[in-house]
Design brief:
Helix content: 40-55%
Structural class: mainly alpha
Oligomer: single chain
Strand content: under 5%
Shape: globular
Number of strands: 0
Order of helices and strands: HHHH
Radius of gyration: 13 Å
């Protein structure tokens, strides 16, 4: 099994959502897209923000950053406006 799981990552991303509000992430697809975008940023030269780097691979670093809450995923409506 992969750790952290998609369910755990979704809980981390949606932990600041108030009851009754739409969650930021509704599917695994959103987590995968966010991790891939962040991994591309790391490959392009951005410094990893994770406190502990378990694996030197960019995608693993991106997943760890999401799990630690270092990366904020914006809803589509906000990211399209910027």
């Amino acid at each position: 099994m992969i750790h952290p799981s998609y369910v755990e990552l979704m809980k981390v991303v949606n932990n600041e959502v108030e009851i009754g509000e739409e969650p930021v992430v509704n599917s695994r697809y959103s987590i995968v897209i966010a991790a891939a975008k962040r991994a591309r940023q790391i490959i392009a030269g951005d410094e990893p923000m994770a406190d502990k780097v378990i694996c030197p691979k960019p995608l693993s670093m991106a997943v760890e950053e999401i799990n630690e809450g270092k990366v904020k995923i914006l809803p589509e409506t906000l990211s399209e406006q910027e």
